[in-house]
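Next up, a chain.

===
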Amino acid sequence: MTTMSNTYRPSLTFLNDDALEELHQTSLRILSEIGMRIHSQDILNILAEQDGVSVDMDSQVATFSPEAVESAIDQTPSEFTLYGRDGGVSVTLSATGALVTQSTSGQYAWVDPVQKTRRDPTLHDLEQGIIVADALPNIDIVGALVQPTEVPVAVRDIRIFAEMLKRTRKPVRTWIHSATSAHYVLEMLQVVAGDTETLRTQPRGMFGVEPISPLVMMRESLETLKVWLKSGQPVVIAPMVQSMGTGPMTMAGTIAQQDAEILGCLVIVQTLAPGTGVVYACANLTLDPRTGNAVFACPEELLAITGGGQLSHKRGLPAGIQAGLSDAILPDAQGGMEKSTSLLMGALAGMNLSGGLGIAGCDQGACLPQLIIDNETIGFVRAVMGGFAVNEETCGFEAIQRVGIGGNFLMDSHTLAQVLRFLPRAVQPLVTIDQHIPCYLGKHMREEWHDEDLGVPVNRSPVILAGEAPCGVANVTGVERPAVHQVIDREPDPDLCVIVPFDDHISMLPQLFPSLDVPLPDSCMSLGDDLSQLSKGVLLQICVNVPVGVDGRCPHQIDGFTLLQVGSILVEDVLLILLNSLLPQVDALCDFHLVVARDSDVVLHLLRDSLEIDVLLV
C-alpha cells in the first residue's frame, strides 16, 4: 500500500502580487515623505543617529527611508516562542505556523447575559476568567479577560500579572500601563523563569504597543517599550486605524496607513533591541457612517484585516488579526454569525494570532459564556484548517470494495481504524482525520432535545433527569448501569476522591453514606493551582449557583474546600471545563466516584457514558 500522506488545507488570498506591491510602496512613501510624530526625546535622539532616519526635533517628526524600513524587517525573526510560567507549556508564533488564540487581555466591564446587565469587574471575575481560559482546550494564551476596578489603576496591571502567573501554566498576556509597572512585571517573569538569561531565551510575556492613528507614538507607550525590550521580551504592534475617522475610508488606504504605522514602530523596536520577536497585528476598525460608532464586524473590516495579514506574510512576520469579534452586546445569533465568519476568514487568510476572545460587543465587556462559545468556534475553525489527507488509505477503495453495493460501513474495519484514533478518555474536542466532535454544541435529535422555555421535558436517554429513576442506563460499552435508587443506596469506597458541585448537599453526605470518612486538606486549594498532588480521599467542592455577596464573591466558606461561584448561564459547561482541568490529574478514573446534584444532567451524561465514571446522585 502506498504510504504517501498528502494533506490539503484551505487558504484564502484575495490580493495579488501587484496589489501587495502597490500597498507596500504606498506605505514606504508615507514613512519617507510624511513620517511619524514621536513623543519621546530619548527615542528621537537615538533615531537621529541611525542611517536612513531623519528627525525634526521641533516638530518631533521622524521620517524613515525605504532602506531603514527593509533593514528593520530583515532583523525581525519570522517566528518566536512564548512560554508559560514554568516553561512546560509554550506556543510558537510563526508567519508560516498555525493559529494561536488568546482570551482578551482585559475588558473594563463584566457582562451578565442572563440579567442582560453590565457592571464593573472584580478580582473574583478575574480569577474565574483565568481558571476557565486555562482549562479551555482551544485557548492557547490566557488573557486577563477583565480589569478589576477594585484594584487601583497604578498597580492594577501588576496585580493582574501576579494572579495569572499563580493560576495558569499557559502563556499569559494583559495590558501594561506604565514603565514603572513593566519593571515589576518583568521582575515577576524573571522569578518564574529562574534567571535573566532564561527569561531572555524563553520569553514569558508580550507587550502590546499601539501607535495612535494617524501616525503618532505616545511618550508613555515608548517609555514602557524601552523597559520591556531590555529583557528580550517580544511585542505586539497593533494600531487601531478607524476607517473614515483616524484613517482613510477606503480599505486600501486603511491597510496602507496601518502598515506604515506598524513598520515605523518596527524600526524603533529593532533599533532599540535588534532581533526582537514582533507580531504584526491588524486591528483596524470601521466607523458606522450612520452613527460614527466604531464597529467590530463588517465586511469592510474583514477585507482590511485579512489584506493586512497578507502584507505581514509577504514580509515574513507573524500576523495577528482582529478576528472573532462581534457587535452583538450579548451572546446571540448575531454574535455567532459575525464571530464565526471573521474567525474562519481570518484563519483562511493565514492569521497566526487571534487575541480578542471572550469579548461581548465592540469592546463592551468580557463575558465568560462568550469565551466558552468562542472556544468551541475555534475548535470548529481548527478542524476546517486541518484539511484532510488524500492517499491510498484515506481514499478507501478496499473498504468500498469490501462493503460492496448497498452495504454498511459502520461495522467495517476501515471505519473502526479511523474511530480508534480519536477516542481518548478526556473531556476535550476529539478530532480525527476527517471528523470533528465539539465539546459543548448540541447534536441531538429532536426526540432527545429538552426545551425548558416551552416546558417540554423530553427524555434525553441515557441522561437522568430530576426525579426520574429509569430501570437501567446503558453506557458506550453496553454495560447496564444501576437504577438511581440503587446508586444512592450504594456507599462509595472512602479511599476514593469525591467531588461535590453543590455545597447545599454537603450536609446530606453523612446520612447518605454513613461510612464515608473523607479527610479534608489542611489548606484551601485553587483550581488554578497545581493539582498534581491531589490524592484520593481529598474532598473537593465546587460551588455553583450559590448566592452572590455585594462584592460579587461567593459568601459560602467551608474550611478546606475550594470555592468557585459562577453565574447561572451555561452552568454545565463551566463545570465541564473545571472537570477537564481536574480529571487528567486523578489516577484510576475507573475507580473514581462523583457526587452531583440531580439537575446536572449534562454532566451525568458525560461522566457516566463518555468517561465511564460511577455517578452517585444526591
Summary: Residues 259 and 436 are 36 Å apart (CA to CA).
